[in-house]
Amino acid sequence: MRAFLSQSEALHLLARSPLVIAAALVALLAIAGAALAPLIAPSDPYDLASFSLVDGLRPPAFLEGGDTRFLLGTDDQGRDMVSAILYGARLSLVIGLGALAFAAILGIGLGLAAGWIGGRFDALVMRIADVQLALPAILTALLVDGIARGLLPSGARDEVRIPVLVAAIGLSLWVDFARTARASTLRAKNEDYVQAAIAMGVHPARILFVEILPNVLGPLVVIATVDLASAILLEATLSFLGVGLPADAPSLGTLIRIGMQFLLSGEWWILWLPTAFLVALVVAINVMGDFLREIFDPRLR
Amino acid sequence: MLAVQGLTVAFPGRQGTFNAVEDVDLAVAAGEIHGLVGESGAGKSTIAAAITGLLPAPGIIAGGAIRLGETDLLALPFAARHATRGKRVSMIFQDPQTSLDPLMTIEAQLVETILAHEPALGRAAAWARAAALLGETGIRDPERRMQAYPHQFSGGMRQRVVIALALCTNPELVIADEPTTALDVAVQSQVLALIRRLVDERGIGMVLITHDIGVIAQVTDRVTVLRHGRVVEAGATADVLGNPQAAYTKSLLASIPRLDRRLPRFPLIADEERAPSASAGADAGALAEAWLKARPAGAGTHAAEALAVENLTVAFDGPRRAFFRKEPPIRAVDDVSLALPRGAVLGLVGESGSGKSTLAKAIMGLVQPSAGTMRHDGAALPPGRTRPRKHPSRRAIQMVFQDPFSSLNGRRRIGAILAEPLVLYGLEPDAGARARLVSSMLALVGLPTDAAERYPHQFSGGQRQRIAIGRALLARPDVLVCDEPTSALDVSIQAQVLNLLKDLQERFALSILFISHDLAVVRQMADRIAVMKDGRLVETGESEAFFAGPREPYSRNLLALTPVLSVKRPRAQAS
Fold first, then answer.
1. Tens digit of pLDDT for each residue in B458-473?
2. Which range marks the domain in which residue A116 is found?
3. The domain that contains A125 carries what CATH number?
4. CB contact under 8 A, A200 and B394
5. Which of A123, B87, B294, B332 has a CA 20 to 30 Å removed from the CA of B478?
6. Do residue A200 and residue B411 have CB atoms under 8 angstroms apart?
7. What domains are there in chain B, each with its CATH number?
8. What is the ipTM of this complex?
9. How close B560 gets to chain A, by Cα (Å)?
């Protein structure tokens, strides 16, 4: 009930926390940059013809030897770093959001059903969730990726790259949603308004989605923001390990992997710029998640 | 001994400062119980918090003086103020469940408190004093009971321990905030008698905060009536209750259900704030009224009994003691047979834990009875999970729950909540007609018609209960099951809601199963009465005959213990 805040109160809290404003700005800029990448990026990093080895390893424009065409320098292939980062972030965000949606739908669905039905079904779902929690996320993702590689013909692999990644990451994140949804459902089930609906003979699906779900949405939104950051990080990790996206369609993780080769060679921008971008994005999303938690749970204020 | 003058407590907020308490005077002499009475939001607890220094942030004492004996509390520096209060003021809280530490023995809590205030006393002397105090508060065999943990005491006994804890530092002033609200009537009257005796014997000053005028009448010497943080009326209890001057006090007294006779309606004395809402809605409610009256006659056999249960038993599994051993099942409802005559109100009374609510849930199909049959309008009513979702009784029997804060989904608009039965039972296919019917129903239950656009949290408890009643009525029920429909409400609101229920019952010939722990409320509402104790039916009968002379000793006792509004307490000659 207290989660009901007037909008003005949320805005008031926002105005008092400069950190959250800064985080929101960073996230907004990063997301806008990624979304508008084809419009604002100086070149298309997927078009191999658009860059040449002659421009390779240029430092950022503000350094000696820099070229104003390449604001943040180029990598060894002559790829413009600004474009590579914007396109990389675009891929990272698409996969992160996709995985989040996958995890949320799977987790909330199973959690609501487990809490409502109870008994053996509940026990089964929750034990599977426990097993899932015991497996490190990266291991789940590697497993799904490996199975997909084995099952699919080699020609199809590249096309399903992104869906496989989404499923792999989503599978390792659904547990949080399921547990929260289940716990909230168990609590809401004993509330009089749900009892009233049961007594009146309302269809269970309607009770779950109209009566219960809106009441458990608050904590789920918070989990979603925190998990979005995790999903982006997980994608970066997988790509860094080489099981994610290939070098010709680089995500932020792939860029970092490429940059690793230049860690000690003096061309620092190839590694550190995508890394800094990734860190800024993830931190910003996490700070906003904490802020949302504060709004939905006034006890933390 | 305690003198509060011109106390103003302010809560600064963004929308401006809110004065929870304004310009309140209060004087308590030694050996005197001073009652603070008022409805929720009157500022009773805020005054107590200001005296004890427990004001929740951002509350501040914006003006006035609090004097304890010769000491001006507010003039003292913080640490000294804190120490003075700790030594001379004690507090008794409402809920004995939460005011004792469940992980410490009674002994540890008492002895520690005594030693914290009088370190020089020594452990043995502190122990002796603690044991003596427990004995004094009516705990038998105190030396042995000292070793017990709070959960090993019953609610009333626990409140006695809390009182002992409050007295163990020999305070001059004790503030009791709703000390008996969480207790059953029988226990309440014992605890109040204990409080009175201790105050007389020890010459303590006490501020007793309560919403219950019955409690005020039973034990207090003087009373201050509060409303919206201001003093409405103050004086000797007998004068204020016997001959109230302020309009608010009069209306408050009039809305208390009487135990001695049944009135057709609660007299509602309108004051400047409480507009008579019923007449305003008379026109707008006509549509809903006509719609309800036009309900098709029940499809059943027109049995004389709208609802009947026979030999109903609901048993819950006992707690598991070991892997293969379970305690015997708890029989929450034990072989109960009851009948609700058509068009009548059956009052079901009992103390907490007597199985009243479980019976209601069994009727609604929310719990699975282990034995017995139920009939609605002559037709068998399938129990628990075997009742199909589309069973006709799901519409014909509707329930009003006790807690209006939990019975309405906070995320749905009132309009959607009220339209639910219309959609669910296919009573009104047209969305426009539904909306008109909903707003007319809102008028009928005495709410503004624009309420449909708003959310439950924008309404007070009484208004929410009206909404819940409206929702139940929109299903066009013949039977209404009301489980303590007013026990979460203030008395003046209770009077309004009960009047509304009476109106609706008479106009639409509803049959109502009215569950309550409060005999006075049941007397005002019920035609027949049934008393339950520990899951069993003790007595049933016509209401008037029952109140004239109950047959069973248990019923007689219950009736005798219910506080009545007469100031008859002989004052002990201590002071």
1. 888 888 998 999 999 9
2. 36-44+72-300
3. 1.10.3720.10
4. yes
5. B332
6. no
7. 2-254 (3.40.50.300), 280-315+326-381+390-561 (3.40.50.300)
8. 0.76
9. 33
